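Service request form, structural biology core

Requester: graduate student, group of Dr. S.
Request type: structure prediction, single chain
Budget code: on file
Notes: please return the result as structure tokens.

Sequence provided:
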Amino acid sequence: NEWLHIAATYDGNTSRVFVNGIEDASASFGPLNIGTASGGLSIGAYGTIQRFKGSLDDLRLYGRALNGSEISSLANPNQTLRMIGTIKEKGIVNESSLETIIPEDYPVGLQTVVGLFPNPVDYEINLKFSGYDSAVLQIAVFDARGVRMKEGEFEVNNGLLTMDISPWKLKPGVHIIVINNNGQQQILKFIKK
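Core staff response, request fulfilled:
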């Protein structure tokens, strides 16, 4: 069993398929309109035949074709999310521009590199820090909509912070961790199984 990130785009002329953030195939078509008048949208099947055998998670539809770097950022959950622009509203993820907006009490700024494992996560998250062996950090966890799910102080020992997330009752899907250390922040995403 292996999870794959699959993305397909159509910009009005060219269709592209990405596997794990890397363009795998493309084909050009003349301008055409995607019909919306009849029938339901099928994903993972061609009508009643050729059904996908597996599980789908974190399905997203956008009103525009994402570019390669946006798809790569979505496909690689261990990458740090970039904060684009200024904070406009509390707790909103604007997917039309992939602009992540978090609450105002979390100032934007990235500094220390963090490793997060395992990812996807069952019940325990480990954060490996480079740059310091021990610290007390303010950490907040948000769901993909930007709703704060958990917040608190956590202690780093020997460069490792382990969090038991089982009591938090997180739903399966993408979540965001915001790590705050004296005003310096790191933002990571993880997938809850």
